Amino acid sequence: MTSAMIDEIAESEPLTPFRRWLDAAAKAEPLAEAMMLATATRQGTPSLRAVLLKGLDARGFVFYTNLESRKAEELLANPQTALSFHWKSLARQVRIEGFAELVHEDEAEAYFASRPRESQIGAWASEQSRPLPDREMLERRVAVLTRRFAEHPVVVRPANWSGFRVRHDRVEFWQEQPSRLHDRLVFIREGEKWRRQRLFP
Question: What is the value of pTM for the model shown?
Fold first, then answer.
């Protein structure tokens, strides 16, 4: 029988238990930091994709992207967003709702500098979300940029590459239970504090 999630989360805020669940997931399966990111246009047309969590603190959940990508354009037009982590091996899910904002330039610079050189060049080569005639064109762009940066010890960050921080206002923890009587616990931001509430499955 799956252990009851509600018994292990005693905190009055969501980030401490989230980190504990993420650490457990990282020991159980690859890419535990993968999260689904939902965005929508101003008109409400939704889209969804997986991104990687690259930063987490009291301000929110951070990921990085090309600012000319579909997800970035939609977030800049409509910052309301949602994230979802699903860890199948643990039968757990965490859902997050909030607003996205650009990270500080210093944060983007520091993270870009930490990336492998090939990934840095890839950021220059890709016109993310734009039509690509064929794979060979992308590979040619990478080859040209690799030669261009060959004599430079540092690959500078492209102006159109940065990150977003999702400021969380609602965080729901979900733990599978038998007979679909799952455990659900939600934290809802109310000013500077959080309200805990258990939900029907």
Answer: 0.93
